[in-house]
Amino acid sequence: MSKQHLGHTARKRFGQNFLHDQYIISQIVDAIGPRPGQNLVEIGPGLGALTEPVCDEVDRLTVVELDRDLAARLRSHPFISGKLNIIEADAMKFDFASLATDGQPLRVFGNLPYNISTPLMFHLFSFTGHIQDMHFMLQKEVVKRLAAGPGNKDYGRLSVMAQYYCQVMPVLEVPPGAFKPAPKVDSAVVRLIPYAERPVEVADISMLNRVCAMAFNQRRKTIRNSLRELLSEAEILALGLNPDCRAENLSLQEFAVLANHCLNREHG
Fold it and tell me: Residues 6 or more apart from 133 whose CB is under 8 A from it?
């Protein structure tokens, strides 16, 4: 398959795969449900597969695009350039709070490059206080990990952290043929709705992240072993948890208990 698509070459370093299946595109736009007056932000608009149909529904859309050629292309787009606020920036470093003007929450969406999707979501989680919802096209495996619960092989640090910040709802699956060039993996769209009130109390989010990272980095080990730098077996028992458990058996609530205890001990 030619990598030339409408005069733009898909760049591997940007992880570019362009969506072209009109039926899938309309399903995604329906799932997003854009309305005039909303504060919509698209990450990585690419060749405008989602940008154009979303612009048909709204009067204004902010797009964050790293690729200079694609940003220039959107600036000169014959039909939608007047509706676009184009920000040439790396979404991984961008301050999304700066777009929440007049206290209007953001509705974020995008076909995220697979090579940066997980760190980019962690970056966006830090702005959830300014976000109404997010709709992302991701590798199907990543969507499974976002939605997985304890005891599932896909359950990991991403599951725990995403579910601390957001309600996770898989929306639809997308076959490789919907893209040019076709990726080697299946894709899926997920809806993430940030909680107004978090489902558990966590005193320090970085400690929760640290405990999850340590536990899941050695997921075959029991938490007695994987967390021994942070907690003794006696402390785990005192918290009402079984030291013989593995990370994949602990709920978000239990990870919160461990993280809060570690923080109290460090500051105690």
Answer: 107, 108, 191, 192, 193, 194
